[in-house]
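Quiz preparation item.
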């Protein structure tokens, strides 16, 4: 059975104490894409059990998948038993998927165990994917030559324009992800309009720009995993 690891932030607050966490639709919609494809899905986070969801995302997203996700007993059980990143064996999975929200910029971006996990998936030739702020969890991923996995790759994330239109000031999260990706040699791409769907695939790197991109990104991963 194809197995996907979905990584969630454990950071409940930003650098200035505002709510952070992981973003509901960016977990729920991909999760059901994977499940409906017959894949097995596990969750992991830096601190393990019950990683905090962004309550703002719960309030704002009432699509069927987001509502179902929080009430789904299988999901509840998996979140209660959420693995610590340090406990994950990358060889057990076919792909890794980083859920967005402001949390990943706060904790996953500088988590050394997470950096090792990303690098293990990448060097194992597996799909490494992330949506919105999720690519923050990839910024310390290295290839077998010690280079950033972003170097020379086409990639997307929540754009600076979207951050400034809808997000937190820089002081809340420390850096804008678009800038960081470009610093690491990534070829940043974005949709023409704010919060429009945009998915980028370059080799084994799969990224989505924003919440609207979460399900299309997961669907592309499903398509490609089934062809492997």
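Solution:
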């Amino acid at each position: 059975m194809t197995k996907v690891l979905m990584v969630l932030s454990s950071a409940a607050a930003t650098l200035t104490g505002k709510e952070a966490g992981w973003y509901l639709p960016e977990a729920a919609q991909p999760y059901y894409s994977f499940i409906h494809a017959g894949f097995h899905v596990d969750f992991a986070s830096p601190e393990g059990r019950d990683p905090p969801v962004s309550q703002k995302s719960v309030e704002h997203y009432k699509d069927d998948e987001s509502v179902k996700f929080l009430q789904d007993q299988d999901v509840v059980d998996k979140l209660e038993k959420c693995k610590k990143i340090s406990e994950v064996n990358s060889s057990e999975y076919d792909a890794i998927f980083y859920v967005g929200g402001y949390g990943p910029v706060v904790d996953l971006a500088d988590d050394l165990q997470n950096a090792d996990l990303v690098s293990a998936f990448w060097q194992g030739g597996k799909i490494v994917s992330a949506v919105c702020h999720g690519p923050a969890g990839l910024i310390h991923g290295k290839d077998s030559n010690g280079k950033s996995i972003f170097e020379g790759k086409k990639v997307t994330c929540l754009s600076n324009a979207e951050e400034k239109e809808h997000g937190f000031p820089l002081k809340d999260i420390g850096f804008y992800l678009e800038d960081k990706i470009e610093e690491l040699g990534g070829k940043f791409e974005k949709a023409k309009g704010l919060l429009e769907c945009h998915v980028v695939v370059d080799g084994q790197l799969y990224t989505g720009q924003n919440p609207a991109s979460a399900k299309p990104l997961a669907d592309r991963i499903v398509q490609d995993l089934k062809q492997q």
